[in-house]
# Entry
Amino acid sequence: MFTRFISGIILATLALSPAVADDPARKVTLVFDHALPNVPGKSMKGVLVEYGPGGSSAAHTHPKSAFIYATVLEGAVRIQINDGPVTVYRAGESFAELPGDHHGVSANASDTEPSKLLAVFVVDTNETNLVIDDVQQGTAQ
# Structure
């Protein structure tokens, strides 16, 4: 049982962002995963995203069940959701993504300083792949 639990954590962490280990400009870490006792079938999952100078993520979506609220902890990030404007959020500022939103831009706003954000997902408990890159969806342009 314990081995299955640890294997699940490792697989969930790897599913967050393919090839993260090979990209020193981006690190993604699942920092918490807790079932919501008053909302059966839903969990709250926290993901720490750390960008080195100039770091970014590929355009992506999240599971259709995911509502995301993100807060910038350090530095500044450039974010574009759907066809909205590219917006810079600085430490202490937050933004939300609704189920089905497309995250076109997610990047460090600085080429010289690191940035960090905490993304809190409310998502189906059984969901392990929290990031679906456009390339994986066959929609890369």
